[in-house]
Design brief:
5% strand, mainly alpha, 60% helix, Acyl_transf_3_dom, transmembrane, five-stranded mixed beta sheet, acyltransferase activity, transferring groups other than amino-acyl groups, 5 strands, globular, 634 residues
Length: 634
């Protein structure tokens, strides 16, 4: 028994060196605590231990959970509940002098028994669903590749077409295919997608590292570097996604409009405008959402980094699942299930409102431009008024004199009224719609070389100003309310103007080596996977960090890149490949087969459908085939 007690004390946390560098959790040694097993003499039961965490007040005796400031890990008998542990903490202090000074500061004990999420009925349903779906994809792929001849008449039968829509072999080949871009195609789109996705992952990895490191003060010197603004302003990566979405939507919608105005503007055309969008984007999102809701908890059991004082009062994923599935959860922070999915809700809400601009642009272009510019001005004004009214910072950065992270209520208001708000984020989306209209309306534009050069300089200057303009502010130099409102309302416009010229110049053949690089066909498969990579990356980061059993210490940015960013990026795109093959591409094919019937005798071809990784924010001609030889394909 003495050996077991000795191991318990050894596995319990000690006050480490560097405590004043911002340690928030004093980790014990979970691996040792998990193996303690002592056979009690003359009794049938065994003495085992469990890893727990004492949450302490940093300002003397604890008066409530609001006082919790630090976690102290202990190894205690597994039969003890959190209440038992708090009761016997006075006895423990006699066994371990380390705890003697903190006995009165204990607010609550967190145990894995209390916080672990078990497999529930919904969990087993998801396991069954994914197993059946995976088996179907494998069986269909084997049938397609090895059993059914390519000229078999069975392939023309509707039932077999539905079955072969799940072919893992064909779907994977279609995702990985990379054709060269031709004139008339928006070459940089996929590169922008991939680079923005890398940027999103990098920003989130750094954020997790900041939150998980036990020497958080050593992280702050990185802010002294000018190029650290790339991390702090990674928020612009999302604006790039919004811009791309607007460009593709307008470009492809007006492409369909030129082919058949009557059908596209008919009631059925507008119904399919929304049905197409919901099916293509919702299929992988709903599977990711349900998988996270019912399987992520069981998969992250017994992770010290994720150990909390207790379960949340409610689970937004189950309580507000219907709101998350209907894309209406971004107006209340407490209703969000997957934190990063706010982008999907905001994007969907802006998509729903796009006919306000698309219809006037199609019928009366001058009026359409007037409406678009008017909405752009109203959005900018709303941004200015909101910043003034709530005294908000210029951006959602964690740093700076007015950082939102210093006040939880202020932070929630900022995200609800600025960051997640479609009436604010629509600025750059509207710009994308106008650019897509221009590209489709004017097939060729001649641009003077000197003018092109200066516009590239202006566009790059605007983007760099938006990206690095808050360097001194993030160094601790305050900004007046006027300049905070100016940056908040105009920075996205500046970013959008830079992206506008990048797209326009490259599309009309004036991008030079930049266009050659960004139109490289290697970006095509990765671009197709970017949507699913976005869906899975955030909680994959959380899972990877959660695998650490002991304290995490920040050493350098290279440590974050090599240990976390590169592995998470590779795993995100690998999981995206699986999600796309299982759900995204089959959903696109099924939509084509079920909602756009073809003559039965015609063989189903690759170009007869438009999977969501091809055009994630668009709608083409409804009744005709979407893509024909020579048509633009992203």
């Amino acid at each position: 028994m003495a050996q077991a007690l000795s191991q318990m004390m050894d596995a319990t946390a000690k006050i480490p060196p560097g405590m004043q560098r911002g340690a928030r959790i004093l980790y014990g040694f979970k691996q040792e605590c998990d193996i303690i097993n002592y056979k009690v003499p003359n009794r049938d039961r065994e003495f085992t231990t469990a890893y727990s965490r004492a949450y302490l007040s940093a300002s003397g005796p604890c008066k409530g959970l609001d006082d919790v400031a630090i976690g102290f890990d202990v190894c205690m008998p597994s039969s003890c509940t959190s209440k038992d542990l708090k009761t016997i903490v006075g006895i423990i202090s006699e066994l371990n002098a380390t705890l003697a000074a903190i006995t009165d500061s204990v607010c609550i004990f967190g145990t894995f028994a209390k916080t672990n999420v078990p497999m529930l009925l919904g969990s087993w349903i998801m396991v069954s669903f994914l197993s059946i779906l995976g088996s179907l994809v494998i069986l269909s792929g084997v049938t397609d590749y090895a059993i059914l001849p390519s000229d078999s008449p069975l392939r023309k039968q509707f039932g077999f077409e539905l079955f072969l829509a799940f072919s893992g072999y064909k779907n994977a080949c279609e995702i990985l295919s990379a054709t060269k871009f031709k004139k008339g195609q928006i070459g940089p789109i996929n590169c922008l997608r991939v680079m923005s996705m890398f940027w999103v992952i990098f920003g989130h990895v750094c954020l997790f590292s900041f939150n998980a490191s036990d020497n958080i003060l050593d992280f702050f010197p990185i802010l002294d570097y000018f190029f650290a603004q790339i991390i702090e302003n990674a928020l612009f990566s999302v604006d790039t996604f919004f811009f791309i979405g607007g460009v593709l939507l307008a470009f492809m919608w007006f492409k369909g409009y030129e082919k058949d105005k009557r059908k596209l503007m008919s009631p059925m055309g507008w119904i399919m405008f929304y049905v197409h969008r919901i099916i293509r984007l919702s299929a992988p999102y709903w599977v990711a959402l349900l998988t996270y809701t019912y399987l992520y908890g069981p998969l992250t059991q017994n992770m010290p980094l994720l150990l909390s004082p207790g379960p949340a009062p409610y689970d937004p994923c189950t309580k507000f699942l219907w709101k998350n599935m209907l894309y209406i959860f971004n107006f209340n922070i407490s209703e969000i299930c997957m934190g990063h999915a706010w982008y999907l809700a905001t994007d969907m809400q802006m998509y729903v409102a796009t006919p306000i601009i698309l219809i006037p642009l199609a019928l009366f272009p001058i009026a359409g431009w007037g409406i678009a510019i008017g909405l752009l001005i109203l959005s900018t004004a709303a941004n200015v008024i909101t910043v003034y009214h709530y005294n908000f910072p210029p951006t959602g950065s964690l740093f700076g004199p007015d950082a939102i992270s210093t006040d939880l209520n202020r932070e929630q208001n900022y995200f609800k009224l600025i960051y997640y708000a479609p009436w604010i984020r629509c600025q750059i989306y509207i710009m994308g719609l106008l650019v897509g209209w221009v590209l489709q309306k004017y097939k060729d534009i001649r641009i003077n070389k000197i003018l092109n050069f200066f516009l590239w300089i202006i566009g790059a200057s605007l983007m760099l100003t938006a990206l690095f303009g808050l360097y001194h502010y993030n160094q601790g130099n305050p900004l007046s309310l006027f300049w905070r409102a100016a940056y908040s309302s105009l920075s996205r416009l500046a970013w959008g103007l830079g992206l506008t010229w990048l797209i326009v110049s490259c599309y009309y053949g004036y991008g030079g080596p930049i266009n050659q690089f960004m139109s490289w066909n290697i970006w095509v498969p990765l671009g197709r996977l970017s949507y699913c990579a976005y869906l899975v990356h955030y909680y994959l980061i959380n899972y990877v960090y959660g695998l650490e059993k002991n304290a995490i210490y920040y050493s350098s940015l290279w440590q974050i890149i090599l240990n976390y960013f590169i592995p998470v990026t590779v795993l995100s795109f690998a999981l995206a490949m699986i999600l796309s093959v299982l759900v995204e591409v089959p959903a696109g094919k099924l939509e084509t087969l079920l909602l756009r019937p073809r003559p039965r005798e015609k063989h189903f071809k690759k170009d007869d459908y438009e999977p969501s990784w091809e055009i994630t924010n668009s709608h083409t001609n409804i009744e005709e085939k979407n893509l024909k030889n020579g048509d633009i394909k992203f």
